[in-house]
Write a structure and sequence with these properties.
By secondary structure, this protein is mainly beta. The protein is built from two helices and nine strands, in the order E-E-E-H-E-E-E-E-E-E-H. Strands 1, 2, 3, 4 and 9 form a five-stranded antiparallel beta sheet that branches. Strands 5-8-7-6 form a four-stranded antiparallel beta sheet, with no helix packed on it. Strand 6 and strand 7 form a beta hairpin.
């Protein structure tokens, strides 16, 4: 059996940046399970897993365009420090959580700040980054009709 649309894939993975920094890994945890062909993983990785079989291992490099996208400069904005709680201690790289007008939660990264302004980045933290995956396919099986209807394993 090989990976194709509507198959449940169980795999271990390790995600690193070009610097070698490990960003995420399933080692020491349960393997990742997803329904192939339903956009549950980034497109560049999904494309490279097509036709693999249980027991296959593959190293995959995903360019930003097929990962979390390029950095959108319009999503980097400067806000007034007064828009944040006055006692908030800021650090470069920290993540702030907010709510939009519809009540949906979102996260932004702090790029820089001074006494009057804060530069925030609303891009995904991995936008613009080349992603390196080591994958180990553990199991492949057809998704059940219930899994397909619910959209998850």
């Amino acid at each position: 059996m090989q990976i194709e649309k509507d198959m449940v894939v169980t795999m271990h993975y390790e995600l690193t940046l070009d610097s070698g920094e490990v960003i995420d890994s399933s080692q020491g945890r349960e393997p990742l399970q997803f329904i192939f062909g339903h956009g549950m993983i980034i497109p560049g990785l999904e494309k490279e897993l097509l036709s693999l079989k249980a027991g296959d291992k593959k190293s995959v490099t995903v360019q930003p365009e097929e990962g979390y996208g390029l950095v959108n400069e319009q999503l980097i904005q400067t806000i007034s420090r007064t828009q944040l709680p006055p006692d908030m201690e800021l650090k470069e790289g920290m993540v702030l959580t907010g709510k939009n007008e519809q009540g949906q939660q979102f996260e932004v990264g702090v790029k820089s700040f001074n006494d009057s302004e804060v530069v925030i980045d609303m891009n995904h933290p991995l936008a613009g980054k080349v992603l390196n995956f080591k994958t180990d396919i553990i199991d492949i099986r057809p998704a059940t009709s219930e899994e397909l209807n619910h959209g998850n394993v």
